[in-house]
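Notebook B, p. 112. Complex prediction, attempt 2.
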Amino acid sequence: MHPARFAAVAAALTLTACAGGGPGGQSSRASVPAPSEPNQVVIYDYKFYPPTLTVPVGTTVSWINHDTAPHTATHRSYTVEPFDTGELPNGQVYRHTFQTAGSYAYICIYHQGMQGTIVVQ
Ligand SMILES: [Cu+2]
């Protein structure tokens, strides 16, 4: 339909990818927004970035939602390190401090193809 428009979008994606992680992360950017704090998982375009985050014991990990759709980061466990952001609206941040080493897989309960893992060591 509009090949010029597609070309422009592709060029913008390439440029922002090459530019790397600058400050800010405004919504006009075509690439994944930069984290707003250390050890943060960015929820963007129905994915968790990075999909696997490795941190030392005692680290506070946060999730921020940059999609207009609400998401969750949910790890159901009756024993070790349960966490659940609940419904996380756009722009909201949830934090969890990991006290136990392990590998914690989590999903978005609304979009179960969204999967991430926090590795605590
Ligand atoms: Cu989701």
